[in-house]
Amino acid sequence: MRLVATLVAIAVLLLSGPLAGSALAAPPAAAPAPAASPVVTPEVGGPLLLALGQADPRMVTADGPETITVEGTLTNTSDTVVEDLAIRLQRGEALSTEGEVRTALDGRAPSDAVTPQFLDLPGELAPGGSMPVRITVPLRGEPTTSLALSRPGVYELLVNVNGAPREGARARLAAVRMLLPVHSLPADPAAGPPIESPAPVASPFTLLYPIVDAPRRLPTVPGETTTLTDDDLADLFAPTGRLGGLVGALAQQAPAGSGLREATCVAVDPDLLQTASAMREGYQVRAPDGTVTPGRGAEVAGQWLDALAAATRGGCLLALPFADADLVALTRGGLAPLATRAVTDGRSITESILGTPVLDEVLWPADGLLDEPTLGAVGAGTAAGAGTVILSAEGIDQGRVTRTTGVLPIAGGPAGQGGVLTDPLLTVAAAGRTGATESTRTGPSSAVPVTSAPAGTSTPLSTQDLIGALVYRTAAGPAASSTGPLVLAPPHQWAVDGTGAGALLTTAARLLADGRLQPRALGTTATAGPPPGADAQRLSYPLRAGAREIPPAVVDAMRVTGDDVERLRASADNELGVGATPAAVFDPLLRDTLRPTSSAWRGRPELAERSGDATTDRVTELRSSVRVLEPPGPYSLGTADAPLLLTVANGLPVAMKVRVEIASTAGLRVAPIPEQRIPPLGRIQVRVSAEVTRSGQFIVDAAVRTLDGGPLGPPSRLQVRSTAYGTITVWLTATAGVLLVVLAARRILRRTRGEPGRHAVPGGPVGPPDQVGPTTRAHPADRANPPARSA
């Protein structure tokens, strides 16, 4: 029986092996049949990684190429040789609803409506090896040799790589998905003449163009060298870097006076501008271990700042809150005044550095989301409180009507508060899927993971999904209930480089030229405000947004650090022409506490905590620079009332009024010390009246405090050595001397009066004093027979 069972098992394995392999692999010359039902693949990465660097065209048009070409690099990330490599482009059906577009953006849309033949790739791929890949496919034609496009629309496109690990079955080992927008189709000798899309009603269009990066600057005071946590900005500011590419694409694709520039409003982080301005004067980098090295990006930072100033001149400019602070987290933590200051200071800093006026009554919070307490406390950051807030359509209570655009009055804020809605679909497309370059999600028509995706990463194709979503929106035209422009608002921390931004701007310019879009300046929309009679809408703050806020512990730590800064400010002394002003020293320090609350750290609490620790440590270091210097040796006091001479140093560039305290201890009493003024970056000697009550050596603590009692530098331990007699010792000595004199006088007086001393011999001779000489002694017989006592 065991032999029979073994033979049956072997037969089952032999039969099931080929069937399983054919289910996963696609033969090079035939298209696989569509899957009967969605297949969920375990969340594991494939052995190959496909990184795409180019796709042409980004949007199919009638006057464009008749083929689509995709180029990239294929890398073997496994420890096994991969053979029998082949690649193909395949697509799904045209996406007809917003839900289908969102499904495609999430990587779950079918992509097997048209599956041309695979094209073999030469050779094999060893572990760790890479090879360039390039595939060109006709846009129109037969399904076995082309994408077989027959009408405009937006399609899910998949770049599919098959292969066989050595001694394994052939299967899909890497794939990249993206949206392919088809604006119109070029002519094809076999398929026919060009196909144009119907001309829709033009949609008013506004593009927000964020230029933001994570905070990297450490707190400093005037006179100190600018210090950064790393030197990444030296690369990012370069023309080939992300920030340099964003500015270059804006200047080239949206020049002043163009319709696209009219529709575009550049949103900048004032902290990034201030950092670049400081870098051009020279800076240093402090590593986590405390090592300090000179920065290498001073020149490129200045060039980037000049290019940005030129590109924004004469156009719409929007200042984000300083350091792109999380206004909701600050308000929840009781720091609403600091949140308001982030908005107002950010506007003044942006104007002063770039020299271009900003929209001073428009606020764009992180993710386009606010809660009602924050709106009530901060408003739009204006003196009157009212203004315009740019909000995601997901950030308002939709009610019965689902809105993706509009200008509406907002309830719960200052009177006259208005909101401009941004399209959530476009924001999702710009952000990409969570997980960056390597995704483990799969589509229902595939049985292997999509190992890389361009959306959401700083790659040349990072805006491809956004281009597809924008074309989808413009094809439908404006909604009947729309009361405002179609607003494209990428995330503040937009992971896109110059190539990706240039492709988006080129597409938007083409849609404007074709009449699908109509430029609408953000300032014009904000000035016009909501239409008369529009119902006010309440804010809706999603739970997912609250879960990503800056942790309360970080906000609490910044409150304590900010209180320390304000105590220093209260003790500062402003003297005209001497040192820096208190505002020049402490206003920047207070803004420095905003960096740990930057929206760059939303969803990344460990980075927020690290930034908070760095800020707190640096402010503590500056506060500790006002202190009592410890002498090289102990103080020696030769008299009971000898004064103590203390040296108090001030490491801040502003004069400080402080209180010096010495704790009294056994053996030393200290008189109250008057308020002291220490010059900027200077030191003074303080004469302290002290009284020694005993001799010897003892230790006392000396500390410097602000005028309201807050601690400054750490207490200094002073060793005091006294060789003088204290008051008690003097009194004891004097008392002993007096007693000695009194006793001596008493003895002399008694002798003078003839009184016997305490040592007189009982029964001795009695007579006049002159008859009792020093030689008079008792006879031995007398000592042996003393006289009898009288009764």
TrEMBL record:
Entry annotated with the keyword Membrane: yes
InterPro entries given in the database record: DUF6049
Keywords: Membrane, Signal, Transmembrane, Transmembrane helix
Ranges annotated as biased composition (Basic and acidic residues): 603-619
Leader sequence segment: 1-25
Membrane-crossing residue ranges in chain numbering: 724-745
Biased amino acid composition, Low complexity: 759-774
Chain intervals with Polar residues compositional bias: 436-459
Top-level taxon of origin: Bacteria
Annotated region described as Disordered, given as residue ranges: 434-459, 600-619, 754-791
Claim: Signal is one of the keywords in the record: yes
Protein's name in the database: Glycoprotein
Species: Pseudonocardia bannensis
